Structure formats: C-alpha cells, structure tokens
C-alpha cells in the first residue's frame, strides 16, 4: 500500500509498544517498489540475516531476475504466522537443500503441519479458514501468493470473533490477541 518492501521481516524485527501496538523495525533491506508494486529487476540482493523467513524466490534469486518483493514480504509474514501458531519454525530455510522445505514443497502446508506437529493437538483443530489464510501467505508460486490486501480480505481475518473462539479452544498459549496481532502485522 505504501510502495515499500521490507526485505527482512522476522520476529526479531517486530516490536510491541507499551500500548500493545506492533511496530516493524530494521529497514536496512527495504526497497521502494512504487505504489503499483513494480517487479524489481535486481542485479544483486543483500543477504538478509533472517534466513528462516526468506521467500523461496529470494533464496533462488539469479541476477537480472524481476521479483515481486512485496510478495516475498507476504511469505515472511506467513512464516511468522505459523511460528506464532506452532511455536516452531516450519523449516530452516526455503531452499531445495533443506529437508523440511523439500517435504513442505511436496505435500503442501496442511499435510506438512500434520506430520511435523502431530504431537500438538492444537494443529488438528485449526479451521479451514485459518489454513486457507496461511496457505495463501505461503504459496510457493509468488504470482499466486496473497498480496497484503488480499490477506486482509480473507474470511479468517474478517471473522475476528470466530477466529478468537477457535484459537481459545485450540490451545492456551497466549492466543487471546493472536488474531488482532495478525491483522496488525498485515496493516
């Protein structure tokens, strides 16, 4: 919306004020992409230090490629979302040499979560709306991945009451404000 791609979103760069307002910091890797989010032809990318959150297209970047850096930020938000939900990273890095990422790429998010987090009964209780939201954030094909606006328009984000009820049932690990935090992160 503001024509900027952060380029290094991760929990380490999200701060909470004393009024419980989320703030994003560390704009060292930020790029102005314009209000129409022009694909960026890049000669090089500075390697962001937060590897867990980097989108697969950034990991596979070749000089001269045009990338949608805001969609790469959406991927990072998806990784953060799953990390907050499960308390574990999905995988170390979105690279083909990462076994977890290989499995995620083959079976998709729903099956991957069931296999990786079987011991957490909360994962088995996640709603289809929540999973559709997460799948839209973590689509391997960046052209099909949600934009931030599309993410904000999903059923799960718009259904605050239902989402809060689902999360309270799912587990007690401080998720009362999880929905509001997810919305704040996207806006």
From TrEMBL:
Keyword rRNA processing among record annotations: no
Keywords: ATP-binding, Kinase, Nucleotide-binding, Serine/threonine-protein kinase, Transferase
GO molecular function, one term: ATP binding
Pfam families: Pkinase
GO cellular component: nucleus
InterPro entries from the UniProt entry: Kinase-like_dom_sf, Prot_kinase_dom
Protein kinase domain residues: 1-157
Source taxon at top rank: Eukaryota
Protein name according to UniProt: Protein kinase domain-containing protein
Species, as recorded: Phytophthora cactorum
